[in-house]
Amino acid sequence: MSAMDLDQPGAGWASGPQFDPDLLRLYYARLFPYDQWCKWMAYNSDEPGTGSQLARRELSLTLADDVYIRYQCFTNAKEMKTLMTKRQPHKIDIGAVFNCVPRDHLSVKNFRPESRELVFDIDLSDYDDVRTCCQGATVCKKCWQYMTCAVKVCESALREDFGFEHIVWIYSGRRGVHCWVCDETARELTNDARLAIIKYFSVVSGNENQAKKTQLSSPLHPSLERAYRLLEPLFVEHVIGENGQGLLASSERWETLLKTLPEEIGGQISKHWEKNGNDTSPLEKWEALKGLCVSEKPNQAKKQKRTSVPELWKYETVFSQCYPRLDENVSKHRNHLLKSPFAAHPKTGRVCVPFDAKKVSTFDPTTVVTLRQLAYELDQHSGDDVLDLDKTSLAHSVRFFEKDFLHPMMRAWGRARRDDAEYAAALKGDF
């Protein structure tokens, strides 16, 4: 029996539902990367059977009709495949590693999470007050550049400021991205430490009724200086122009921005641009506004302050538009659930694939593979003597996950174990 009946004239993966029970059944039976998933979640643990990290990891499943079951677990890839093909979950969420097998949680008095990746969840719907192309769950290549901004800032801070190395970015399947920080030090963070890290990234606040959504102070933290250097070119390319969000391309949008300036200055510019605004490009307007910014001196007269633009204004403007907007609740607790990589989104049918943070600006969420496309590709190569995965465009994402994330992390585990063994031998004098 073929994967799907797509042989009628005009049929193809682009037509019809991208997510349905038959497509899901096919995906779990033939394509979900169970081996790679379990190698990741096992973290090179030597613990046997139910004592392993993999066995103590909670998996939460949402079945058809929103039936929700928690505390699912397994000890290897074969057991995971059996569970997935039996339950056919519409949604898979990953929880913490607990101090016992999760299915025994009711019989354990002190059931508690012991470790969990540091995770971030960033949704484009949280940028609805600044993006003009889409709203809600709708996403296009234009507003995806807000995710480019978020990924670049978070990547630089996580690696340079916190020293994390094993980080994987996942497309959420619909309107955002998830970040998994998998270093051992990250997985062992307490709730208080997780909250401190999320606060480190908390720059934008307020709501759609506030023109100004950041409040900075001098001297600016070095991480914010670096973030500005990363974000200002993206702000110019993707936010101010008419090919982007149009912040400085129409009077309606620039009036909102001018309201964040001192009233006297904003009013003068508004009148000037109202008459001559079409004579200058969005970039020229932005350069002119930046030219007004001056460093404030402690002994500066109040009158001067009212008629000048503080230097921090340009930072606050760029950050209000482009700085990452993280969901604090997802990150601050060890036992919070987050959608699994390689799950399929039930609304779009798109697979939650990993992507290269260095190439985030060229990632196109509108072309991410769907379950229906995968079924079509399997049918097109039904006679080929290769692995099912290699018949599909999902293969690229799985290979990237292996090559750029999983294998480097496993090599690091190996080095750490050798170092530990050599240190132990040195202590004993056993060389």
Please, could you describe this protein's structure?
The protein has 431 residues and is α+β, with helices and mostly antiparallel strands. The protein has a domain at 206-323. The chain has 15 helices and 11 strands. The chain has helices at residues 21-30, 34-42, 77-87, 145-161, 184-187, 191-200, 222-238, 251-258, 263-276, 282-292, 302-306, 312-322, 328-331, 371-380, 394-428, and strands at 57-62, 68-72, 91-98, 113-115, 118-123, 167-171, 176-181, 293-294, 309-310, 338-339, 354-355. Helix 1 packs across helix 14. The longest helix is centred in the last third of the chain and has 35 residues, at 394-428. The N and C termini lie far apart (61 Å). Residues 1-11 have low confidence and may be disordered.
Tags for this entry?
single chain; 431 residues; alpha+beta; four-stranded antiparallel β-sheet; 41% helix; globular
Concise overview:
Belongs to the eukaryotic-type primase small subunit family. With 431 residues, the chain is α+β, with helices and mostly antiparallel strands.
What Rg, in angstroms, do the CA atoms define?
Answer: 25 Å
Largest sheet: 5 strands, antiparallel
Helix content: 40-55%
Spans where pLDDT lies below 50 across 5 or more residues: 1-11
The rough form would be described as globular
The helix/strand order is HHEEHEEEHEEHHHHHHEHEHHEEHH
Count of DSSP-assigned helices: 15
GO cellular component, one term: alpha DNA polymerase:primase complex
Pfam family, one: DNA_primase_S
Family: Belongs to the eukaryotic-type primase small subunit family.
Organism: Pelagomonas calceolata
